Give the backbone structure.
Amino acid sequence: MTFTPKFPNFLHGGDYNPDQWLDRPDILDRDVEMMRKAHVNAVSVGIFSWARLEIEDGVYDFTWLDEVIDRLWRGGIHVVLATPSGARPAWMAQKYPEVLRVNEQYQRYHFGGRHNHCFTSPVYRRKVHEMDTRLAQRYANHPAVILWHLSNEFSGHCYCDYCQEAFRGWLKKRYGTLEALNQAWWTSFWAHRYTDWSQVEAPGPMAETSTNGMYIDWRRFATGQCKDFMMAERDAVQAINPELKVTANLMERFWDYDYFSLAEGMDVVSWDAYPMWHSGDDVARAAEFAMNHDMMRSFKDQPFLLMESTPSQVNWKPVNKLKRSGMHLLSSMQALAHGSQSVMYFQWRKGRGAAEQFHGAVVDHDGRDDTRVFKDVTSVGKALEGLRPLYDKEKSPAQACIIYDWSNWWAIDYAQTGQKGNMQYFDSVNMHYRSLWEMGVNVDFRDERECTDLSRYKLVICPMLFMLKESFAQKLRDFVENGGTLLMTYFSGVVDESGNAWLGGAPHNLIDVLGVRATELDALFPEDKQALRMTDGRSFPIHELCEIPEMHGAEGLGAYEEDFYADLPCLTRNRFGKGQAYYLAAKVEQEGLDAIYADIADELELSRAMNQELPRGVIATERGGAVFLQNYSGKAQQVVFEEKYTDMITGAAVEGEHIMPANGVMVLVK
Ligand code: GLA
Ligand code: ZN
């Protein structure tokens, strides 16, 4: 898949803010020269340019942007053109206060910051539409412009009257009648029944905080409102040139919006990755970011773009550490290994002032092109050129799939039980993912939408699938019935899509498939001891959550070691139809999951990036027919290659014994 015929190649570049340097034409000229030297081929322009583009209401100035884009194009640099809706000018906030967001205390913000506009305000929508239309009329057919970058890092929600009204409208559409809403939200609790739609207000600290279903719907609504705003931007620019695709840059572990749903409204997913390397365990960090990348690839089941990353350090973490030698290339290659078609940075050149004056950039305040960072960036640019043959290779089909569902995430976090407020959905899923990632098994992510098709997988994993839709339970039944292998964990199939408990036992509609029924959920204190003892005697520690199972025909593969449920099964397997279903009743630590998945991967013969032993912390990931071999162990490692390869980065032949340096990376083809 290539997102533009204009430049079917890996993008290398980043956020470029020439509007901060309009009084320095010498610097703007030098930028293009230096970009070429750094093997940069594309930059994102205009993300925060509104105040320079519309000087006052209805008074536009595109001359500087014309020059910037032409200058870039003369230098052979492509442009990812942004719509500037992520931050609006002061005059607009002053003239039309309704564009400003209202917080949970019902206070309207004053001018300042960014990403703090109301998504519903008719004035803001009109102003954005006018701006986007003008930008598109002027640039949508410019040869340099290869993609739209809609707004920036969409986030948040608003409590203004427009948004409240829109929320009620959304609910009317979803539920039809107030009675259906009262049922879905279980409003007989604490005398919360509504008798008129006008009584319904957004949940929040000044209003309702105890109705889980309402909170979940508020998050669905917030997603919908952002999606609608984003799609209005998409429609505005594509009205001029329908061929030019749009992206919006997403974020890691982003809880506020359902990203599977938001991604439906864009053509290409992109995201901003800022891993905190060298802050302890880089293997764990790499496992987390590998999962983030795979999620981005999975949202649309197609390659994505790494829109931002730092060439050196960020400035907004408590400790802003530089990337150690090798890490810039390694971290960039990791994105490619999981399906990225770009390595882009925030930012090209450091600004002189304001909040991000010390954020890492390709070009520092000294303006030099011979710094360590500049050289690191240049080597990534060169590496990407060498990897061009991988650019549009068919993606590597995954045989394993993890279900990650946003409504489920919200439902877990709003439910008051277990490790209340600390149920760790993302991190728990990441532990399952990590076992497969370390083995070199490719993984997709899917959610509970109707469009999800599980039939292409051998293994489907449902960690903490607390909210289980009726239709998805049926999909899982069919999957196992037809020969698939399911692994489901504790705290699954407990509530329906409104967050109301299923009656008749958990996991809902899967008890016969799993051969086990979940009864009570026990939460452990950190000092409590519990473990899973496998039938072969191996023992693995358990923390946080343990469920007490009741057997309905499954075979026990491991049992609890401690407490009043000692000897009751904790890991089970059940044959059902042509397939089988595992149930894991407790939060087993990583080593336990590794052991469980090693057995399953062998049994299902899941394909791996390399069929040989690798040192711990050296990870092989297959993409497009190449093996990305990555050393996150923090030290040099000896790898003994059992087959002959060529490293596409260096062109060197690789065989036999080989020392990989700390943070080393190779892209191997046979
Ligand atoms: C985000 C934003 C950028 C910049 C970077 C800094 O990703 O999109 O504008 O603020 O963070 O890391
Ligand atoms: Zn609003």
About this structure: The pocket of zinc ion (ligand 2) is lined by residues 102, 118, 120-121, 158, 160, 162-163 (CB under 6 Å). The first strand starts at residue 11 and ends at 16. The mean pLDDT is 97. The radius of gyration is 26 Å.
